[in-house]
Automatic annotation (TrEMBL):
Keywords recorded for this protein, A-Z: DNA-binding, Transcription, Transcription regulation
Limits of the HTH araC/xylS-type domain: 237-334
Name of the molecule in the record: Helix-turn-helix domain-containing protein
Keyword Hydrolase: no
A Pfam family hit: Arabinose_bd
Entries under SMART domains matching the protein: HTH_ARAC
UniProt-listed PANTHER family: HTH-TYPE TRANSCRIPTIONAL REGULATOR GADX (PTHR47894), HTH-TYPE TRANSCRIPTIONAL REGULATOR VQSM (PTHR47894:SF1)
Amino acid sequence: MPFNDPPMASSYLRQIADQVASMGGDVDAWLGRQGLQAAQLEDASFQLSFPVFRLLLLDALELTREPSLGLLIGERMRAHTHGILGYAAINSGTLRQALDVTRRYFRLRTTMLDTAIDLQGDYLRLQLVECLPLGDIARPVLEAVLLAIKNILDFIARGSAPCQLVSFHCAAPDDMALARELFQCEVRYGQDWTGMLLPAAALDIPLKVGDAASFEQALQICQRELDKLVTPYSTAARVRKLMLEQRTAFPSLALTARMLHLTPRTLHRRLLAEHSSYQQILDEVRHMLALEYLRGGQTSVQEISYALGYTDIANFRRAFKRWEGVPPTAWQAA
């Protein structure tokens, strides 16, 4: 069942097109196969659906024959690439402030992913969370976005907060050298999370490039832009975000409605208008998290079952077979 998300801004399609062109690809033909034209990439208001974005990225991978295309795209992205959010980040007073503004306004740049931040001892973990199953484009998308984030953090920190570890839930590529070279730290694939570890001690060190007045101005613009994103499609996305933030103890329909300042009846009606439902979103989130846990290889099927709220492991196995056509153990072994 497809996710009912708003259309995606084409913010980063320009970088993909530039990378395809730099590798000798015919960008006009590449775009044309999806009924698009190069001029549309210069239109800031141009939007495209996730299915079209997915086909463009898969086509770019085939056209360039470069399995690490995501890393090359991410390396192209610098602070100015990220619009007003990038401007806010580079004018932050501290790394903590930069990370907070990134977390709050991340969806201005993409609706495919969200960020989660938590402290783990001496480290801060910045995690990327899929807002919809990326499937066969997970690796290039996650590599590009994570490298882009690291590049901007490196720029503003100027060496005061070196990344300690980069983690991906995707399977390891045949050639790990490029990832290590670009991230300039330890890189691990096949983990149960995607993101990076930063030294917590550096969070409140004043940043040399920040400007308080510019930051406040950028923050106001970010909030105005975020307010514009409230669309008739957003209720399902908001429910999904709440579930992903919980990850285990999923809120009931009644609690979800209360958290969104709605009555259960109103929430049900709004989701129905979007051709969605609470149960459908719960099923989709469970599906996505089940795949994430299985890819990580650190959690047993029984533990995954309980983590996703199934009281009976047999019910989880039946649900997984409905999603993927095979039992979870068979999917993991494939």
